[in-house]
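[Meeting: bench + compute handoff]

Bench side (C.D.) handed over the final construct sequence. Compute side (W.E.) agreed to return the predicted structure before the next meeting so the bench team could plan truncations. Sequence as handed over:
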Amino acid sequence: MPIFGTDFNNILDLKTDQAYTGYFTTAKKNRFVREATNKAIEFKVATNDRIQVQDDLFGIFKTNATFTPTSNTLDLIPGGAGMTDYHHVMNVKAQYIMPLGVNITSATATTPIRITLAGEVNLRNGEAVQIASVNAQANGTRYVKRLRNDLFELYSDKYLITPIVGVTAFSGTGLINRIIYNDAYDMKSNRKFSNLNAPSVYDPYYEIANTVMKIYPIDLTCTQITMDYVSIPVYIDVTNASTDLLTIYSERFIYFIADETARLMAMSMRDDNLMIQSQSEITNQP
């Protein structure tokens, strides 16, 4: 059975026993609901594990979303050029493309393609590389299987199951770079000034300030960010009879928002009994 904004309004009336609901206009009620939704989301993010948060916020919880930063920054302003629906970050991965210092001198027309490098490198089996200036089959993001320190086979997956099919042989100067993609952590100010704790491409960090997300190390180019995050909430309109709230939030969370709304309404009316009852419901919410 769906739950619409009008149903939420009825739930709210029941929770407040309609004692003071008559004193609130629809616009004022919606303002309380909006504030309660923001508080409820922050409470869930702060006090529950990520699976619980995803369960309750499945309609606005985004996973594995990729973004391209500009000069290691990502704009977080709603409607801006970067991340247009940002509300709260959960985790971040940062990608850096680092030169290996050698070129590709040849590529075979076999399956899988074998590439020969001008010198030895320390690539491991299953490591991701970026190849360019070879041919249409070899170019792109590839995964390597090491035969020698200067000879590698190319695959399309890190498990080395699907080989890259060679069509034309190549000899010349091709480009190969290492792709480094690691979890980034929240930057604390002391790391900016500590050589021992300085961020690196293998240990990247991020900070949020001045309406942007910055990725460190800042002096090397971050080429891609992958994030799990909470997007801008869908706010409940108590007059809406068409949007099913169960397509956005869990039923448990809808009732949680109702409890928080009732608490805020009770605070505004100085109704201690209603406030205590609502707080008890919030505390007992799983």
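W.E. noted at the follow-up: The first strand starts at residue 61 and ends at 67. C.D. will use this when planning the next construct.
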